[in-house]
């Protein structure tokens, strides 16, 4: 190897490193959505363990803190859900706040008491990601913002973001149209992660089982939900990320249909690139079956 080549090597490595942002997402659903926008083969790190689910009560591990420090571009929820991570970000890191994609007028207020570790309460429900309609907006924002911070790939980010967002909007349209004529319109949720999905497909949330993260509902609260479920002929919607016994008890007592819908708040590490879309299509099919039940 010539001296000249040796001298050039470190510089080219540096340039390559500067040219390739280390993209990371704070939470699993944002990682899955970001994977749809980046180049095939371009990695998206996840800053908390994939099995964590909503990090409402999460304390970061040492490894997770190190991953936060390594990231150069961080895709964040920005509505308090991932504050445990975002409060560690420095001005040298680019933060892409996906909640900015959702107009204020479309924010739902939260039914769950999402206090962070300082006991600070946030007003808006932060679970935008669980609705394909809102996910489409998030993806469009990612396409623009990633391109701004990684200009050499901007055209590709933008093109993929438009394609994915269009597919997600079509899925939301189909869900809305399919569910509209079905007899049941009211639902009781496991926790408020599915509130945007419910609203966006024309369903009304009449109750929430888990109003405090990590805290079981009282017998009185469960009793009240049985009355509500009967009065509204509500479908009970459970989530795979939570234990199901309260929901199944409620469904049995009220004689309500019960269905498990995955908000993609957590999931396996190794999944196909279109995992988010696949999961949402499966959710749509299960919802139709449950809302059709007499
Ligand atoms: Zn949550």
The oligomeric state of the chains shown is single chain
CATH class of the largest domain: Alpha Beta
State the helix count. Answer: 10
Bound molecules: zinc ion
* Main beta sheet strand tally, sense and closure: 4 strands, parallel
- Classify the secondary structure makeup into a structural class: alpha/beta
Describe the global form: globular
Q: Any low-confidence stretches, pLDDT <50, length ≥5?
A: 9-17, 113-121
The third-level CATH topology of the largest domain is Rossmann fold
Name the beta content range.
5-15%
Major sheet: order of its strands?
2-1-3-4
Named CATH architecture of the largest domain: 3-Layer(aba) Sandwich
Radius of gyration: 21 Å
Give the overall pLDDT as a whole number.
Answer: 89
CATH homologous superfamily of the largest domain - what is it? Nitrogenase molybdenum iron protein domain
Helix content: 40-55%
Query: How many beta strands in the DSSP annotation?
Result: 8
The total tally of domains equals: 2
Characterization of this structure:
The chain is an alpha/beta fold. Helix content is 44%, strand content 10%. The chain has a four-stranded parallel β-sheet with strand order 2-1-3-4. Helix 8 crosses helix 9. The longest helix has 26 residues. It is globular. It binds zinc ion. The site of zinc ion has 5 residues, from loops.
Summarize the structure.
The protein is 44% helix and 10% strand. It is α/β, with parallel strands linked by helices and 294 residues long.
Helices and strands in order:
Blueprint: H1 3-19, E1 23-25, H2 28-35, E2 45-46, H3 62-70, E3 73-76, H4 83-86, E4 94-97, H5 132-149, H6 154-179, E5 186-189, H7 195-200, E6 204-208, H8 219-232, E7 235-238, H9 245-254, E8 258-260, H10 275-292
Parallel strand pairs: 1-2, 1-3, 3-4, 5-6, 5-7, 7-8
Zinc ion is lined by residues 54, 56, 127, 191, 193.
């Amino acid at each position: 190897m010539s001296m000249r080549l040796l001298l050039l090597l470190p510089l080219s490595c540096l340039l390559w490193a500067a040219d390739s942002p280390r993209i990371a997402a704070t939470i699993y659903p944002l990682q899955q959505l970001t994977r749809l926008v980046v180049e095939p083969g371009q990695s998206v790190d996840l800053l908390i363990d994939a099995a964590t689910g909503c990090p409402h009560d999460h304390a970061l591990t040492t490894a997770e803190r190190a991953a936060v420090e390594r990231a150069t571009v961080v895709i964040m929820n920005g509505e308090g859900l991932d504050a445990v991570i975002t409060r560690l970000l420095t001005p040298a890191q680019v933060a892409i706040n996906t909640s900015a994609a959702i107009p204020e007028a479309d924010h739902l207020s939260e039914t769950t008491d999402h206090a962070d570790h300082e006991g600070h309460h946030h007003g808006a429900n932060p679970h935008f990601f669980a609705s394909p309609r809102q996910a489409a907006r998030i993806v469009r924002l990612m396409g623009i913002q990633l391109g701004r911070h990684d200009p050499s790939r901007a055209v590709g980010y933008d093109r993929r973001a438009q394609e994915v967002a269009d597919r997600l909007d079509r899925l939301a349209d189909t869900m809305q149209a399919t569910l509209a004529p079905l007899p049941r319109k009211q639902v009781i949720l496991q926790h408020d992660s599915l509130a945007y999905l419910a609203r966006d497909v024309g369903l009304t949330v009449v109750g929430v089982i888990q109003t405090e993260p990590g805290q079981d509902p009282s017998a009185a609260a469960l009793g009240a939900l049985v009355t509500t479920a009967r009065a509204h002929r509500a479908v009970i919607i459970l989530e795979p990320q939570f234990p199901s016994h309260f929901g199944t008890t409620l469904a049995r007592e009220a004689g309500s249909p019960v269905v498990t819908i995955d908000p993609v708040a957590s999931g396996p590490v190794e999944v196909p690139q279109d995992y988010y879309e696949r999961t949402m299509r499966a959710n749509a099919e299960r919802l139709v079956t449950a809302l059709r039940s007499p």
